[in-house]
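=== RUN LOG ===
request id: a7f3
mode: sequence -> structure
chains: 1
length: 295
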Amino acid sequence: MKPGAPPKKTSISPPAFFSKAVAQARRFYLDLHPRRQTPLAVVCGGLEHCTADYAIARESFPFYSIEYVLRGRGALKLGRHPCDLRPGCLFAYGPGIAHHITSDPDDPLVKYFVDFKGTEAVRLLASCKLAPGHVSKVFPAQALQPLFDEIIQAGSLPRRGGAALCRKLLECLALRIDGARAPMEGAETLAFATYQHCRQFVETHFRRLRTLEQIAGECHVNHAYLCRLFQRYDQQTPYQYLIRLKMNFAAEQLQQRNALVKQIAEQAGFTDPFHFSRVFTTVFGVSPAAFRRLR
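=== RESULT ===
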């Protein structure tokens, strides 16, 4: 669905709670009254480019909701707890949760939202540690954008399967939130900033980097501390991340018809093509030659 296109036409009227203080929006709405015992049902969602005077003040809401800030700034008050909204912030609310949202007039919010209902809704939010009334943050700030776009696209489909696809994508969103969580401002901020710096360094220089000690030395951190940072925020070691980047690069190069395996190994930072082939096979389950035949 193209930006600014009208919402999908259905026999259901657009929800009254859709804010009019938006400069541009991509929204969809499905069944706003799912059956009482439905495990999980997405009812609506979208992307909103808020105006300078955007303001929401509700004491409750009939559905559970996840909102995610893509760009801009704003202020949020969930219950009695205020916080600043920045790119990468997300928050959840639902029945009985008061929420006040305002946009910064000088840097208006651009945010996604998805509203849902069902007997499994609270469990889903608990699975990604985003209970109603709580705020979280993801890294990188754009980490959730592709999934939200997929949800909007699925919700805008004319066929009946759109609702089922939205439900599955919402479950995927919960998994992605849990895996991309970043610390809020506080005690972990410095540690997370160090992790971000080291991760970006590996992404930029992965082709020439070869060992954990080299990464730690060039990032000016202790190698044991570097491992702890990656295991805390990435659930893998920095060396595993390095190898994954090298192998993804190699897989892309293997799609080129005339590229030699030995040359690709050298480009990925391996001096021994046989060692490269063993690592490639371990990561992808097939040899470089067999991978090339899969084209």
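=== NOTES ===
Residues 244 and 283 are 8 Å apart (CA to CA).
The chain is about 40% helix and 20% strand.
=== END ===
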